[in-house]
Amino acid sequence: MRLFFLLISGLIVAVASKGTPTCETDNDCNLNGECLPGVKTCKCDSGWTSSDCGALDLRPATRGTGFNITSTGTSTWGSKIIHDPHNPKLFHLFLAEFTDDCGLDYWSPYSRIIRAESTAGPAGPYTFTQEVVGAFAHNPTVIYSPADRKYLLYYIGCPQSPPETCTDPSFTCGPGNFINGESGISLQSSTDLKTWKFVGQIFQGANDDAWDADVTNPSPFPLWSHSDQTSEILLAYRGCPVNCSGNELLNLATARSFGGPYTKTQSLPLFSAPNEDPFIWRDKRGHFHMLTHSLEPDGSFGSGPKVGRHAYSRTLEGPWTFNNQTLAFSTLVEYSDGTSVNFYRRERPQLFFSEDGQMTPLYLSNGVQENGSSMSYSVIQPLAGAKQWEKTFGLAA
Ligand SMILES: *[C@@H]1O[C@H](CO)[C@@H](O)[C@H](O)[C@H]1NC(C)=O
Ligand SMILES: *[C@@H]1O[C@H](CO)[C@@H](O)[C@H](O)[C@H]1NC(C)=O
Ligand SMILES: *[C@@H]1O[C@H](CO)[C@@H](O)[C@H](O)[C@H]1NC(C)=O
Ligand SMILES: *[C@@H]1O[C@H](CO)[C@@H](O)[C@H](O)[C@H]1NC(C)=O
Fold this sequence. Notes:
Shape: globular
Radius of gyration: 22 Å
Organism: Hyphodiscus hymeniophilus
Number of domains: 2
Keywords: Disulfide bond, EGF-like domain, Signal
Protein name: EGF-like domain-containing protein
InterPro entries: EGF, Glyco_hydro_beta-prop_sf
Bound molecules: 2-acetamido-2-deoxy-beta-D-glucopyranose
Number of strands: 25
CATH superfamily of the largest domain: Glycosyl hydrolase domain, family 43
Largest sheet: 4 strands, antiparallel
Strand order of the largest sheet: 5-6-7-8
């Protein structure tokens, strides 16, 4: 009897130590890792964690990094890190800054696009270097197009001269929105990140009853690879009905080259769940991924911690899977001094990847707002591989 009991408990221990199977295929690992045969558990790629590899493996941020000039009265939003092509110790940050000390509520029409520089690593701190596009210009993101040997700046807006006292007059930058001018995606190109040439408004909304009559939140990705040197560009965007009077949902468009025309890959939204601020990329295996700002009831604009979601697809044509189980990132940012800030709002996710072809996410940047403040700034938080990567450039202290 005693021996039988020992045998049984031994068997239970043996089964338990093998772990509970969590995956059948790599899809169950969010395509951010591999489902190990036999044990059927996920082995996550660097930068990803949790049992389904659906959470970003974030590490403590350092106070004073990113771009936070709220002490001077100025608010900023979002940010995209670009590594200088000639100077390995130089990093550029493209972000939105609100003129006239207007807070986040006045992003339209006070937002302009600026460039800041850092020689302290991708996380910064960054210092203001130049205005790139004057007000109203918002939602900037920059990619390098290898086929064109150009940097491409995608953004929304059109020139406005708002009064010095913060107000929000109704205006339009094209079809789809007559209230805050957000509809319509514009593009500028550059070879040196400093001088920019206006290409045009390359993706427009419509004054009809479409779910995506209003188009904004551009996230481009060049489909170029060593084996297929195409100039094709993939563009994720957020749509909503005219004047953004309904759900904010996501979709994709592609263009043969950056100047357009951009054609929607499908007519229906990618996901039924409301999301904005998509950030899209293709990984080392050729699979597609997206981070989003989730507008679910426990996230959204100050309603709770569930602000960051991840979605994936094996091909551009889909089907896309939206991970509504594991949160990709929350409103909580931990700092290396042991403190933490639970932000009221944390949006506009953008990643900086390793440059070795592995597409390892190394830094996450967001626009943030603290609870009880009307101002906003840009946080940059490192991921698991960041310290090692900084060492290779002689940047880490
Ligand atoms: C950003 O700057 C403000 C004003 O100086 C400061 O109160 C806040 O703590 C800073 N944020 C972080 C994360 O350090
Ligand atoms: C959009 O807003 C403008 C300006 O307020 C208004 O004139 C127009 O009727 C609105 N359109 C729709 C479809 O709501
Ligand atoms: C989560 O996603 C699954 C699969 O798409 C869906 O069946 C389920 O209803 C979703 N749950 C919630 C809470 O949205
Ligand atoms: C934000 O501040 C308000 C009052 O200032 C407070 O009631 C609320 O609990 C705070 N929210 C969080 C998430 O800290």
